[in-house]
């Protein structure tokens, strides 16, 4: 079979051999081949179509990128807000803990001050009691001395060496007895 037969009956020279509709189709095809490419197959039309398709794809891609950026920005904003909220909560918690520690420190200081004041008051009471006891002891000793020593009658009018020596001897004797607890 030759090449013309492979193409089919439409490519044969059909000078009136084909019935009506087939002949018209063959004539249309011949006009298309004879005229050259139509506006649909023109290179500028194809280039324009390619540019439009590429531009549309680029615009769609850019819209997707902008949408993703907006979504990511919103997500980052939410993360930042949550972090700021958590930071504020931590700061408030730290402030509460610091205030509580300060209150505890103040209470401890006040307690220490109260203990110091109580110790000072107790020491003062003890010292006062000791002074009173010393004073009472001194009064008791003086009363005991007054009962123990009676100045001789001749020493009442004259202050002689005998009177002074007698006083000193009586005082030493009294002190010895006092220290022994005889009074």
The value of Rg in angstroms is 66 Å
Can you count the helices?
5
Following the backbone from N to C, one meets helices and strands in this order, namely: HHHHH
Beta-strand proportion: under 5%
Mean pLDDT across the residues is 83
Question: How many distinct beta strands?
Answer: 0
Largest sheet: none
- How many angstroms separate the termini? 167 Å
Q: Quaternary status of these chains?
A: single chain
Q: In terms of per-residue confidence, which ranges show pLDDT below 50 for 5 or more consecutive residues?
A: 1-14
- What is the 3D shape? rod-shaped
| Helical/strand content category | mainly alpha
Q: Helix amount, in percent?
A: over 70%
What are the SSEs and their pairings?
Layout: H1 3-7, H2 20-35, H3 43-148, H4 154-157, H5 161-180
Explain how this protein is built.
The chain is mostly helical and about 180 residues long. The chain has a domain at about 1-35. The protein has five helices and no strands. The model is unreliable at about 1-15 (pLDDT under 50).
In short:
The relative contact order is 0.03. Helices cover 83% and strands 0% of the residues. It has helices at residues 3-7, 20-35, 43-148, 154-157, 161-180.
Features:
183 residues; mainly alpha; 5 helices; rod-shaped; disordered N terminus
């Amino acid at each position: 079979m030759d090449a013309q037969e492979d193409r089919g009956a439409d490519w044969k020279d059909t000078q009136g051999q084909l019935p009506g509709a087939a002949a018209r189709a063959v004539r249309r095809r011949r006009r298309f081949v004879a005229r050259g490419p139509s506006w649909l197959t023109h290179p500028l039309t194809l280039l324009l179509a390619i540019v439009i398709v590429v531009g549309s794809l680029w615009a769609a891609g850019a819209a997707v990128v902008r949408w993703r950026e907006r979504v990511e920005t919103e997500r980052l904003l939410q993360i930042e807000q949550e972090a700021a909220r958590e930071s504020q909560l931590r700061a408030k918690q730290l402030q509460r803990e610091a205030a509580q520690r300060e209150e505890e420190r103040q209470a401890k200081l006040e307690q220490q001050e109260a203990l110091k004041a109580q110790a000072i008051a107790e020491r003062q009471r003890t010292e006062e009691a000791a002074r009173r006891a010393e004073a009472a002891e001194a009064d008791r000793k003086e009363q005991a001395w007054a009962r123990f020593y009676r100045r001789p009658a001749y020493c009442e009018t004259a202050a002689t060496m005998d009177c002074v020596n007698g006083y000193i001897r009586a005082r030493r004797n009294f002190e010895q007895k006092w220290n022994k607890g005889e009074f």
